[in-house]
Design a protein that fits this description.
The complex is a heterodimer of chains A (422) and B (334).
Chain A (H helix, E strand, L loop, with lengths): L2 H4 L46 H5 L21 H26 L13 H10 L5 E3 L5 H6 L4 H9 L32 H14 L6 E6 L6 H12 L4 E7 L2 E2 L2 E2 L13 H5 L2 E6 L3 H16 L5 E6 L19 H5 L5 H11 L5 H23 L25 H16 L3
Parallel strand pairs in A: 1-2, 2-3, 3-7, 6-7
Antiparallel strand pairs in A: 4-5
Helix pairs in contact in A: 3-4, 3-12, 3-13, 4-10, 6-13, 7-8
Chain B lengths: L2 H15 L3 E5 L15 H5 L4 E3 L4 H14 L2 E5 L10 H8 L2 H4 L9 E6 L14 H5 L5 E3 L4 H13 L4 E6 L39 E4 L4 E5 L2 H13 L3 E5 L2 E3 L3 H11 L2 E8 L4 H13 L8 E5 L9 H4 L3 H13 L1
Helix pairs in contact in B: 1-7, 3-4, 8-12, 9-10
Classes of the chains: A alpha/beta (422), B alpha/beta (334).
Family (chain A): Belongs to the BCKDHA family.
Keywords (chain A): Oxidoreductase, Thiamine pyrophosphate
Protein name (chain A): 2-oxoisovalerate dehydrogenase subunit alpha
């Protein structure tokens, strides 16, 4: 068609999403619809995915914003267990605070906090069995902490020091802990999703009882791996829980760039014929209840569940990021679903199982625990102080056995360093 | 046995010996694979051990990594090597580095089988030879057999290996050896001496090259289909060439290469993959580094051109007898 003939046609236009608030904007979430705790029905664990489509678009909640609990999803947890959960969430926050500071002190290169998202890992870990295999993303330190993994061990990894079981090869926070059924973290996003499905398929094909769970952010649901994982999980009815942590921000890109303007992330499940739940991720009881439901569903061969944890990343993406450059500073305080620790604390106080004094004492205790672990870990070195693994370990574990070319290169490195007097 | 039957036999034997081995891939189950390499395996070993997958190579390899994490030893098939690219991240960033990044906590003992190479009018999406990409990745082993006997022994060794292995099968010689004269039909393996394949278990260690023909004038380094093209050219040319079938590119049998080139003083490298940054470049550099003082002529590379594989012109692309013959002549006269 020639150009003249195009003139009377309507020009196309491209939609580029924009977040609601940018730096300096006043934040107003008044139109944010928070469904009532009674709004979400709790289907039988064997229900067909098409019977629960509304759950992929709603919000499963147990705690209301006054600290009361209710609704069909309310789990029957003892106050002792709730206090233990609260303590683990506080421990994660204390751990994050200290590790953030040591990064600022130059003792390591990098750190990532999960502030505001503690419930999504801690409550999930409480609802899983200790040997259910977890394929985390980089903000699920809570899984290790809920499984009482050694803080010193985690810190040694962050410091890449002599005590780092990973021999100083991974960036800080990219833990691996097979004994804790915690998979080695990858920096390439969503790769763990099909891996978790593969683990679940292997377990099922063996008639085992272990299930798998994986986590990714809402941003990385755009990766092909996420969709491959959903396809495999659906096709083979794999006993897996696919968790999407919708914390609203993928570094500086808001959730709209992953498709949030068009639908929910839980609704991804609908197209795959998977059970989908959208959950208030700042409500520890809702996260617990949804995970427990999904785990029971998986254990009884009813297949996978995709859970979107609707939450908010209260801090920057990492220590290399400055969120004030791309989002309104008010968002965090105005977030309509509050803070997960504050909400659980309020609930415990409301049921008479907790008070401000005990909470303050607990905060002091977890800070002390983290501080003591920090001192212990630093005895084995911090990044760049020389207390690292021997240089030749660089060549180990590329293959099971050292092949000739790596042996030669290892020798060459030693000789070159010697010749250079270092 | 032809090469497909040898591969089938290797899979069958491994699955019988080790219940941790599972086979997965597009069409590998009920149908037995588009090349029939996995025929009868599902019927014999059950559909939870041999099963068809969705068409997502990234999913196939990602799932296989997860199966390794559980303790299985998957043998995924990528239907054509040209389709391995969607799985590249799972291979390169995950399977290859899992042992390293977890300091041995997790490993990926998988063998990725994939038919590769051209000469079957597969156009630019069913003909490529991407082996160099994988040899560049720390943590992967790359194996390429050239005959049924090796295919079986190497595949068993690959499956039993605790590192991830890329096992490329030269599909042009699945049914028989091929000397590169494209007008000539493929000779069935049944008439070829190297097709005598034992029914039972045996293995050929990874990292050991085979001397296909001993000679004194020039060393020809080759693998896969090119072993047969080379043997044909050498027989026609009357040059006393030593033909080395590398069999595995990583780990590489550097001793065999070094000993041969030091003996002959000349080196020609043949592969079907594109030339620039192809594995021939690595071989050439190694020979230069280690055998420089023994060399009597510049090293020659006979390779595919730096273009995608052209469908109708594939025989002009394929590094066949004419080009190899000329290269040999140049090296011998220099």
């Amino acid at each position: 068609m020639d150009e003249d003939a195009r003139r009377n046609m309507r020009p196309l236009s491209l939609h580029v999403p924009e977040p609601r608030f940018r730096p300096g904007d006043a934040v107003d979430f008044a139109d944010f619809d928070i469904p009532d705790v009674a709004a979400a029905p709790r289907p039988d664990i064997g229900a067909m995915p098409e019977e629960m489509r509304s759950l992929a678009y709603g919000l499963v909640r147990v705690l209301d914003l006054d600290g009361a609990s209710g609704g069909a999803w309310a789990p029957r947890l003892s106050p002792e267990r709730l206090v233990a959960m609260l303590r683990h969430m506080a421990l994660v926050r204390a751990f994050d605070d200290r590790m953030y500071r040591v990064q600022r002190q130059g003792k390591t290169s990098f750190y990532m906090k999960c502030t505001g998202e503690e419930a999504t890992s801690i409550a999930a870990a409480y609802a899983l069995d200790r040997d259910d295999m977890c394929f985390p993303s980089y903000r699920q330190q809570g899984l290790l902490i809920a499984r009482d993994w050694s803080l010193v061990d985690m810190m040694c990894q962050i410091y890449s020091n002599r005590g780092d079981r990973l021999k100083g090869r991974q960036m800080p926070i990219m833990y691996s802990a097979k004994e804790a059924s915690f998979f080695s973290i990858s920096g390439n996003l969503a790769t763990q999703m099909p891996q978790a499905v593969g683990f679940a398929m292997a377990s099922a094909s063996r008639g085992d009882t272990r299930i798998a769970a994986c986590w990714c952010g809402e941003g990385s649901t755009a990766e092909g791996d996420f969709h491959s994982a959903c396809t495999f999980a659906s096709v083979y009815r794999a006993p897996v829980i696919i968790n999407v942590i919708n914390n609203q921000w993928a570094i500086s890109s808001f959730s709209g760039f992953a498709g949030a303007e068009s639908t929910t992330f839980a609704a991804r499940a609908v197209g795959y014929g998977i059970a989908g739940l959208r959950v208030d991720g700042n409500d520890a009881l809702a996260v617990y209840a949804a995970t427990e439901w999904a785990a029971e569903r998986a254990r009884n061969n009813f297949g996978p569940t995709l859970i979107e944890h609707f939450t908010y990343r209260a801090e920057g993406h990492s220590t290399s990021d400055d969120p004030t450059k791309y989002r309104s500073a008010e968002e965090r305080s105005a977030w309509p679903l509050g803070d997960p620790i504050a909400r659980l604390k309020q609930h415990l106080i409301a049921i008479g199982a907790w008070d401000e004094e005990r909470h303050a004492a607990m905060d002091r205790e977890v800070a002390e625990e983290v501080k003591a672990a920090g001192k212990e870990a630093e005895k084995q070195g911090v990044l760049g102080d020389g207390l690292h693994q021997p240089f030749t370990t660089m060549f180990e574990d590329v293959f099971e056995e050292l092949p000739w070319h790596l042996e030669e290169q290892s020798r060459q490195m030693v000789e070159e360093r010697k010749a250079a007097g270092i | 046995m032809n090469m497909i039957q040898a591969i089938n036999s290797a899979l069958d034997i491994c699955m019988e010996r080790d219940k941790d081995i599972v086979v997965l891939g597009e069409d590998v189950g009920y149908f037995g694979g588009v090349f029939k390499a996995t025929e009868h395996l599902q019927k014999k070993h059950g559909k939870t051990r041999v099963f068809d997958t969705p068409i997502t190579e990234c999913g196939i390899i990602g799932v296989a990594v997860g199966m390794c994490t559980y303790g299985l030893r998957p043998v995924p098939e990528i239907q054509f090597a040209d389709y391995i690219y969607p799985a590249l991240d799972q291979l390169v960033s995950e399977a290859a580095r899992l042992r390293y990044r977890s300091a041995g906590e997790y490993t990926a003992p998988m063998t990725v089988r994939s038919p590769f190479g051209g000469g079957i009018f597969g156009g630019q999406t069913h003909s490529q030879s991407p082996e160099a990409i994988f040899t560049h990745v720390a943590g992967l082993k790359t194996v390429i057999p050239s005959n049924p006997y090796d295919a079986k022994g190497l595949l068993i060794a690959a499956i039993e290996d605790n590192d991830p292995v890329i096992f490329f099968e030269p599909k042009r010689i699945y049914n028989g050896p091929f000397d590169g004269h494209y007008g000539k039909p493929v000779t069935p393996w049944a008439k070829h001496p190297s097709s005598a394949v034992p029914e039972g278990y045996y293995r050929i260690p990874l990292g050991k090259a085979a001397t296909v023909r001993e000679g004194n004038d020039v060393t020809i380094l080759c693998y896969g289909t090119m072993v047969h093209v080379t043997a044909g050219v050498v027989a026609e040319s009357g040059i006393d060439a030593e033909i080395i079938d590398l069999r595995t590119l990583v780990p590489l049998d550097i001793e065999a290469i070094e000993a041969s080139v030091k003996k002959t003083g000349r080196c020609v490298i043949v592969h079907e993959a594109t030339r620039t940054s192809g594995f021939g470049a690595e071989l050439s550099a190694l020979v230069q580094e280690r055998c420089f003082h023994s060399l009597e002529a510049p090293i020659e590379r006979v390779t595919g051109w730096d273009t995608p594989y052209p469908h109708s012109l594939e025989w002009a692309y394929f590094p066949g007898p004419v080009r190899l013959g000329q290269a040999l002549k140049r090296v011998m006269e220099s």
